């Protein structure tokens, strides 16, 4: 026989709500740990008096009764687990696990039994329903009628708020059955009545949630918050944890009270009561009890007369009454020396405290996350600036908390703390790869970097192919520009020739040299403006896609996805397109290398066929483009030769006017080649003038001209 039994996904019924958790049965007793709050219920084996197995809405359930009258209900068992549980109860607890089904006849007339903390409405020997009396908030009586009102359950969408019982009159003298019924309910109900005097009162305390200033009256069984608008009565049984946290400015203190169930204000629920104190505030406190009562009740934890800081007095009194430990920050110390980190959660800025067993964020909204409910943490890039990073926490239930705008100097301290607590860091591998690098912003990796992204892989594959095509086209255009006519270079040669001639002619006439100098400056400015225009890159015109061009090859993943899409749809009927892509990515990621190699080979074959088809396609298209290029090159070469041939009839000592006119004709040639916005009439006139000049320059001198030249 096993020494222990463990069950996951068991639900404990508490105040009408079903709390998910884990149930463990051992020789010493039964332990249930709530997954949501972390609260642990421990039932000693010697306290068990009865165990009942019955069919419920969530399968099968276990009802346990103890000697002090408490009732515990656990649902979510399978029918096959009855024998295992029955044998365990017989062996270790000496109890017979009885099978007892609920009555489902639908009758509304029966008998009421009070057993411990439970009101049971029975028809015959079978119970119809049971009401935990701790859920009752109010009990009122009428003529032959008793009305029960219940606390509202925040975890349930629909809550039972009221039940009325008709109690028939009896013939017994001196006993009112209605009053007897009501007294049985009130003796076990959770009805808060402020009877007697308060133990002590703290005046005008600053409360952050709920916001305002409240007088706190301390009663033996509950805490009373009295404000100008609202009053709250908080039973000590609803206090889950106490925290005492120093503010980052070292001048204030937070005292946090965790509540389950929370206090309510309209539709707002407050799971945390947060008080803010100044360290400089002192108080002298006198308890409204005599010294013997104080000693007997608190056993030295409190004294009748106490004095000290206000936050110390409040926390000390709460610790003694609630009987729970106060959690304080551990050995974590941030970059600035504080025990917290400044960050933002949702829309508000606050403080994140790394504790010994969890994280707590104050204050709007307060969040407490235990280490045992954390699935992993992640250090992510800041969304707005490079001087900060985000700290992400994801719980085992799938809830994600993102604390943003954390200073990058806090990264090392926080990473060391998380590593020391042995929490699962999602992007740890990236940090280990970057060891030896200077610690900086590049150490933070993206949240989704280790997940397979099918769309991203496809885009990368298409990007590579586009780059290859772009390189091929740039090579072709490079050949074209190497041999094309460059008007800027020819203008520079002309300008140099003009400068040398101008300097030669300036020795004869100083007036002319001044005019030449002015013209030279004007031409230089015009040339510089022309160079700036030529440097500007022409607007790229997007080429339309040729329908005859071969289609790009698919990647190995896309080939596999096309082949496996129908199979995935049949395995998961009704799956959406996005979910199908995610599922396919997970399957591909988990596929073995041998299977992936098969699709890699297919992708390689497809790539080769594509390259072959592209060569044939480019070859057919390249012949026509080569013919066009050769025509352009011949035309350009002819023009360059004509322009570079000097006129034989021109004298070595030409006037500045003639030189400027020759330079102007050159400029007309370049502008004719480059400009496209002038009207057609001007272009025709310039071309006719240029052609006449070219004919004169290229025509060889006649014999008469040569003879006259020799006579001179």
Automatic annotation (TrEMBL):
Biased composition annotated in UniProt, kind: Basic and acidic residues: 537-549, 580-627
Membrane-spanning segments: none
Cell compartment(s), UniProt: Nucleus, Nucleolus; Nucleus; Chromosome
Organism superkingdom: Eukaryota
Residue ranges for the DNA-binding region feature of this UniProt entry: 550-618
Main location class: nucleus
Pfam families: HMG_box, PH1_SSRP1-like, POB3_N, Rttp106-like_middle, SSrecog, SSRP1_C
Ranges of compositional bias, category Polar residues: 699-712
Keyword Membrane belongs to the record: no
Feature: compositional bias, Low complexity: 500-510, 646-662
Domain HMG box stretches: 550-618
Region (Disordered): 461-712
InterPro entries (UniProt xref): HMG_box_dom (IPR009071), HMG_box_dom_sf (IPR036910), PH-like_dom_sf (IPR011993), RTT106/SPT16-like_middle_dom (IPR013719), RTT106/SSRP1_HistChap/FACT (IPR050454), SSRP1-like_PH1 (IPR048993), SSRP1/POB3 (IPR000969), SSRP1/POB3_N (IPR035417)
Extent of Acidic residues compositional bias: 473-499
PROSITE patterns, per database record: HMG_BOX_2
Keywords: Chromosome, DNA damage, DNA repair, DNA replication, DNA-binding, Nucleus, Transcription, Transcription regulation
Basic residues composition bias: residue spans: 518-536, 628-637
Function text: Component of the FACT complex, a general chromatin factor that acts to reorganize nucleosomes. The FACT complex is involved in multiple processes that require DNA as a template such as mRNA elongation, DNA replication and DNA repair. During transcription elongation the FACT complex acts as a histone chaperone that both destabilizes and restores nucleosomal structure.
Family the entry assigns: Belongs to the SSRP1 family.
Protein name: FACT complex subunit SSRP1
Organism: Ceratotherium simum simum (Southern white rhinoceros)
């Amino acid at each position: 026989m096993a020494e222990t039994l463990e069950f996951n996904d068991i639900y404990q019924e508490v105040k009408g709500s079903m709390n998910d958790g884990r149930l463990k049965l051992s020789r010493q007793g039964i332990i249930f740990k709530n997954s949501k709050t972390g609260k642990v219920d421990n039932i000693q084996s010697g306290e068990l008096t009865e165990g009942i197995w019955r069919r419920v809405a969530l399968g099968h359930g276990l009802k346990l009764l103890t000697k002090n009258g408490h009732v515990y209900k656990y649902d979510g068992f399978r029918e096959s687990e009855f024998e295992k549980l029955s044998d365990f109860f017989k062996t270790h607890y000496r109890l017979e696990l009885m099978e007892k089904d609920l009555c489902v006849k639908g009758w509304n007339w029966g008998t009421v039994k009070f057993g411990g903390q439970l009101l049971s409405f029975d028809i015959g020997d079978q119970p119809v329903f049971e009401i935990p009396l701790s859920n009752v908030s109010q009990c009122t009586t009428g003529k032959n009628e008793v009305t029960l009102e219940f606390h509202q359950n925040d975890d349930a969408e629909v809550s039972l708020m009221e039940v009325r019982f008709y109690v028939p009159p009896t013939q017994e003298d001196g006993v009112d059955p209605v009053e007897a019924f009501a007294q049985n309910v009130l003796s076990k109900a959770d009805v808060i009545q402020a009877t007697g005097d308060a133990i002590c009162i703290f005046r005008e305390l600053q409360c952050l949630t709920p916001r305002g200033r409240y007088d706190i009256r301390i009663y033996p069984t509950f805490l009373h918050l009295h404000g100008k608008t609202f009053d709250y009565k908080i039973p000590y049984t609803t206090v889950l944890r106490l925290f005492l946290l120093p503010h980052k400015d070292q001048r204030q203190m937070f005292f946090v009270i965790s509540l389950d169930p929370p206090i309510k204000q309209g539709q707002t629920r407050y799971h945390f009561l947060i008080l803010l104190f100044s360290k400089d505030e002192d108080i002298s406190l006198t308890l409204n009890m005599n010294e013997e009562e104080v000693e007997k009740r608190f056993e030295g934890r409190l004294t009748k007369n106490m004095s000290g800081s206000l936050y110390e007095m409040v926390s000390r009194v709460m610790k003694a009454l609630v009987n729970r430990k106060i959690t304080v920050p551990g050995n974590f110390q941030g970059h600035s020396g504080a025990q917290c980190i400044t960050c933002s959660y949702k829309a508000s800025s606050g403080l994140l405290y790394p504790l010994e067993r969890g994280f707590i964020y104050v204050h709007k909204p307060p969040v407490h996350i235990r280490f045992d409910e954390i699935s992993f943490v992640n250090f992510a890039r800041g969304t707005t600036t490079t001087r900060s990073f985000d700290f992400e926490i994801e719980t085992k239930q799938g809830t994600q908390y993102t604390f943003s705008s954390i200073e990058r100097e806090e990264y090392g301290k926080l990473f060391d703390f998380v590593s020391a607590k042995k929490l699962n860091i999602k992007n740890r591998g990236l940090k280990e790869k970057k060891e030896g690098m200077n610690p900086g912003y590049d150490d933070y990796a993206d949240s989704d970097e280790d997940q397979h992204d099918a769309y991203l892989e496809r885009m990368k594959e298409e990007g590579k192919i586009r780059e290859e095509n772009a390189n091929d086209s740039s090579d072709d255009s490079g050949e074209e520009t190497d041999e094309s006519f460059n008007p800027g270079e020819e203008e520079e040669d002309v300008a140099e020739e003009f400068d040398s001639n101008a300097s030669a002619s300036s020795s004869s006439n100083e007036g002319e040299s001044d005019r030449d100098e002015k013209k030279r400056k004007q031409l230089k400015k015009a040339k510089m403006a022309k160079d700036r225009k030529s440097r500007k890159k022409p607007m790229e015109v997007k080429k339309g896609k040729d329908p005859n061009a071969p289609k790009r090859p698919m990647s190995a993943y896309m080939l596999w996805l096309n082949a496996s899409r129908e199979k995935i749809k049949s395995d998961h009927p009704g799956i959406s397109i996005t979910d199908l892509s995610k599922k396919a990515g997970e399957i591909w990621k988990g596929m073995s290398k041998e299977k992936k190699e098969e699709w890699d080979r297919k992708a390689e074959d497809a790539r080769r066929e594509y390259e072959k088809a592209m060569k044939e396609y480019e070859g057919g298209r390249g012949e026509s483009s080569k013919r066009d290029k050769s025509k352009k090159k011949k035309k350009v070469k002819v023009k360059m030769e004509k322009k570079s041939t000097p006129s034989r009839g021109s004298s070595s000592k030409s006037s500045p006017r003639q030189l400027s006119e020759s330079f102007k004709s050159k400029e007309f040639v370049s502008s004719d080649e480059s400009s496209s916005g002038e009207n057609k009439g001007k272009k025709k006139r310039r071309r006719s003038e240029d052609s006449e000049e070219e004919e004169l320059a290229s025509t060889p001198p006649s014999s008469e001209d040569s003879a006259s030249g020799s006579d001179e």
